[in-house]
Every structure is written in C-alpha cells, then in structure tokens.
Design brief:
- β7, α6 and β8 form a beta-alpha-beta unit.
- The radius of gyration is 25 Å and the shape is elongated.
- 24% of the residues lie in helices and 35% in strands.
- It folds into 2 domains: 241 residues, Rossmann fold, CATH 3.40.50; 125 residues, RNA polymerase II/Efflux pump adaptor protein, barrel-sandwich hybrid domain (OB fold (Dihydrolipoamide Acetyltransferase, E2P), Beta Barrel).
- The strands form 4 sheets. A 7-stranded antiparallel β-sheet has the order 21-20-14-11-12-13-22. A 6-stranded mixed β-sheet has the order 6-7-8-3-9-10, sandwiched between helices.
- α3 runs parallel beside α5.
- It contains 10 helices and 22 strands.
- It starts with a strand and ends in an 8-residue tail after the last strand.
- It is an alpha+beta fold.
- The chain binds adenosine-5'-diphosphate and magnesium ion.
- Magnesium ion binds next to α1.
C-alpha cells in the first residue's frame, strides 16, 4: 500500500509548562512511501522519527497536514481502522503466555463476522510463525528464548492480522551487534516474502543503508533528503546528510575555490570549476575512500602527517592530521592493506582526491555546491 504524508507537522506542548513555545517534532513533512517497499526513517535521537511513525499509525494526530493510504485520506482514521502492525524496541511480549498465545493475542478480540474459531486462529499463528521461522518454538515462554527470537515473535504478532503496513520503531536496538545484523537481514527477507509496505525507524545509518529501498534522512523534525541509499551516499544534498552517512565518517575541511582549483590551506588539491565560475570559500567533504595515496608526480595533493594506521584486515585506515581539518578532527583514509604498508616512516603522506568522492558545501547554509572537474593544467613545454 502506498503511504503519503503531505505537509505534515506535529507540535507538542513543551513538557516544561512554563515554556509556552511548542516543540515541533515533525515539520512540514512531505514524503511518499511506495507500495511494497521498505523505507527507513533515519536520523539522530530526538529528530522526530518515532513521532513520524506514530503519525502514520494514527497513535498521534498531526497538527497540520494530511496522510493518505492508497490515495484515501486517513488523517482522521483511528489506528484500529488503518490496518497497521507495529513493533517496538521493547518486544512487549506477555511473559506468562506461550509464544502461540502471544502471537494469537491480536486475533482474540476480533468481533462480528471477523471472529475466528480457535482452530482458525491456530492456523494463522502457525502460518506467520513459519514466515519468521519460530514454528518450532510455539510452546515456549518468552524468557526461554533469545532476544532475536523474541523480536521475531513480536514481528509475527504484528503480522498475524495481515496488516496493510508494518511499522518498526528501532526494533533491533536491544540486540547485540551480531544478532542485529542477522535480524535486520531477517526483517528484509520477511518484508520481501510478504511484500508488505514497511516503515523502519532507526538512528543507525548502516542498518538503514543495508536493508532499505529508500531512506528518509531527518534532523530536528525536517526531512533533509530522501532517496535510494546509494544515491544519497553518492550525492548528499547537504553537509548534515554527508556527515550522517558512512563509516568512518566523511572528512570535512575548510577550503576555497579560486584560479580553477580547489585549495585546502596552501594545498592545491583538485582542478575544479563552479557552475557560475565563481570563487568562494567552501566546506570540502571527502569520503575516506576518496583519499588515494599519491604518486611522486601527482600535481594535486593534500599533505598529511600520519598519526596512526589502523589495521582492520582487508582494508586499513590511515589516520592523519591536516591543519585545515575542521573541529580539530583527524583525516581518515581507507586504503588496502598493501597500500598502507607502502606508507613510509617519514610520517608524511600525500593524498590525491577522487573527484566523485569529493563534495563541496556552502559555508553558510551547508547546502551542496555543484562543481565540475576542470581540465588539469598542463605546463607548456
Ligand atoms: N508526547 C510528547 N510531548 C512533548 N514532546 C514530545 C512528545 N513526544 C516527542 N516529543 C519531542 O519531540 C521531539 C521528537 O521526538 P521523537 O519523535 O521521539 O524523536 P526520535 O524518535 O527521533 O528520537 C523530541 O524533541 C521530543 O522530546
Ligand atoms: Mg524514537
């Protein structure tokens, strides 16, 4: 089912009653969630992810704006009538009930012609239990299961009424790292198998990137960018999105475009031309994989001082200083283990930049400044 939010705003009264200003949890949000897709809402804690999800479920009513399910205005529809299944970070299973009873719970209160017999309910539970692969565990109690298994029970319970939409609010936060990866792949499999339109809330960019068709990146109630994970990574609309996606995070330095080149401090690092041929000061974002060890005759290089080399198996991270690095942070380059070995003992390291991995941002509003790689200067013979 297609979900649309149109100019949705949610304001809460301030918890501190003395402050009369409202908290704007979601601000003028307009997004489209395609039928059958898995869409992640991604952003730091407090940016309005849960509020956005609660607006979709109907647990919260928008202050302004509209919500549509398959073109039908559901803005004023109660949660029960929207046909949603929800899963939260805390599994909220009933400890004294078996897995079977836990999953069956939402079916027991169906009324009128929707009322089911015990046998019908059991059949439905077994069906979803198979999908989430806990059909062997139906007669256990929650505490006899691992966290990952309990979360599957919660997902099965959300799916048993065949909802039109599955809403997941940080469902993996309570699991340890290995189980988190396993369970997120599991969620993706279940979503694909059932074809159910799913909205997945997380603050973990890797999690969002790895399982989503589309990510919605939010900050302070505002949608900063929407797109396919790879597209957003490859073409961030602003500095916030560039910094939020990717590990290690993007390197951000102060720089300047002048005389047909990008300068970082005194280093001439890339031949570039801005659309309007302007000269201006910018923030330079360089992905760690966009810093390539330079050869001796490379003209455009960024000079660094090696602080350490972190061995990570296949790839290594070179951590270096650069005087133009923002916020006193380190420069991080990801290079192959063999390239890392070629870094000499002098402590100096020169990088050339992969222009596809370099982004420029306005110093004031931090939006992206487009550039074209210019022709390299050739010294006349
Ligand atoms: N019921 C509420 N009353 C007052 N403020 C709220 C309420 N729910 C959320 N907020 C505020 O709205 C903002 C967004 O919260 P939330 O949607 O929970 O963020 P997230 O899920 O991204 O961490 C926060 O500043 C939070 O304090
Ligand atoms: Mg939340």
């Amino acid at each position: 089912m297609k979900i649309e939010l149109k100019h949705v705003t949610k304001k809460f009264p301030n918890i501190d009653r003395k402050i009369h200003e409202f908290v704007v949890a979601v601000s003028d949000m307009t997004v489209e969630i395609p039928d059958g897709s898995l869409v992640s809402i991604l952003g730091p804690s407090g940016c309005g992810k849960s509020t956005a999800l609660n607006l979709i479920s109907g647990l919260e009513a928008p202050t302004e704006g509209w919500i549509f399910f398959d073109g039908e205005d559901v803005t004023d529809l109660s949660p029960e009538k929207r046909g949603i299944g929800m899963v939260f970070q805390s599994y909220a299973l009933y400890p004294h009930l078996t897995v079977m009873k836990n999953i069956m719970f939402p079916l027991e209160n169906l009324k009128g012609d929707k009322k089911l017999t015990k046998a019908e309910m059991k059949k439905k539970v077994e069906e979803v239990a198979r999908i989430v692969q806990i059909d062997e565990l139906l007669y256990r109690k929650p505490k006899q299961m691992s966290g990952g298994q309990q979360q599957r029970v919660a997902i099965a319970r959300a799916l048993v009424k065949k909802p039109r939409v599955l809403l997941l609010d940080e469902p993996l936060s309570n699991l340890d790292a290995r189980l988190r990866i396993q369970t997120r792949e599991e969620i993706r499999r279940i979503q694909k198998e059932t074809g159910i339109t799913t909205v997945f809330v997380t603050h973990d960019q890797e999690e969002a990137m790895s399982i989503s068709d589309i990510i919605i990146v939010m900050k302070q109630g505002v949608v900063y960018q929407t797109g396919k994970p790879q597209d957003v990574y490859d073409s961030p609309a602003n500095l916030f999105v560039a910094k939020f996606l990717g590990t290690p995070p993007i390197n951000v330095l102060g720089g300047e475009v002048k005389d047909g080149s990008l300068y970082v401090g005194h280093d001439k690092v890339l031949p570039v031309r801005l659309k309007d041929n302007a000269e201006r000061r910018v923030f330079v974002g360089i992905r760690p994989e966009g810093l390539i060890l330079a050869g001796d005759d490379d003209q455009y290089v960024l000079h660094g001082k090696v602080k350490s080399i972190q061995v990570m198996g296949r790839d290594n991270t070179i951590v270096a200083n650069h005087h133009a690095m923002s916020e006193g942070a380190d420069l991080r380059a990801i290079v192959s283990a063999s390239d890392a070995r070629s870094v000499g003992d002098s402590g100096n390291v020169n990088f050339k930049l992969d222009p596809a991995k370099v982004f420029l941002f306005d110093r004031e509003d931090e939006t992206r400044v487009e550039f074209e790689p210019a022709e390299e200067e050739h010294v006349e013979e």
